[in-house]
Design a protein that fits this description.
- This protein is an all-alpha fold and 152 residues long.
- Helix content is 62%, strand content 0%.
- The protein contains nine helices and no strands.
- Helix 2 packs across helix 7, helix 3 packs across helix 7 and helix 7 runs antiparallel to helix 9.
- The longest helix is centred in the last third of the chain and has 18 residues.
């Protein structure tokens, strides 16, 4: 029998605990980014599985949780697939990463919310100019690979 999937509140709590002590490039608590992406998914019409994936989208990539944990977690198969699709592998070409996201139902919307928050001018403004420029170019390129328009 399949266990009942974790509620969104449980997923949020789990993600906050898994990323406790981590900060983003600007030194802010990493959970602020996760909350912003989850809110962005919700605002873009995402469903509960996508919102759960938003909370966990960086967990495996950042080694906050393991892929083995994800495999056995009380999450829907779709949520797990989205999290894995959004987990960039070391040395993985951006084109391959984008293809996997586009091939996974529901993942592109989560990545769109992630990119929107990552590229937020207020977030980028606190970074030094070379870092700001490098990240802006990276996010623009990923949007292009995903066929997503720039968001303001």
């Amino acid at each position: 029998m399949t266990p009942t999937p974790l509620t969104l509140a449980q997923v949020e709590d789990l993600a906050r605990r898994a990323h406790a002590g981590q900060t983003d490039k600007a030194g802010r608590p990493y959970a602020e980014h996760l909350a912003a992406v989850a809110d962005g998914v919700r605002a873009r019409g995402g469903d509960e599985e996508q919102i759960a994936a938003a909370w966990l989208h960086d967990a495996v990539e950042d080694d906050a949780l393991t892929e083995e944990w994800l495999d056995g977690a009380a999450l829907t198969p779709r949520t797990k697939a989205i999290v894995l699709a959004l987990t960039k592998r070391p040395g993985e070409p951006s084109e391959e990463y984008a293809r996997r996201i586009l091939a996974t139902p529901g993942a592109a919307l989560v990545k769109r919310a992630d990119l929107a928050h990552n590229a937020d001018p207020a977030r980028l403004a606190v970074l030094d100019e070379p870092t700001r420029r490098r990240l802006a170019e990276k996010y623009t390129r990923m949007r292009a690979l995903l066929g997503q328009a720039e968001e303001g």
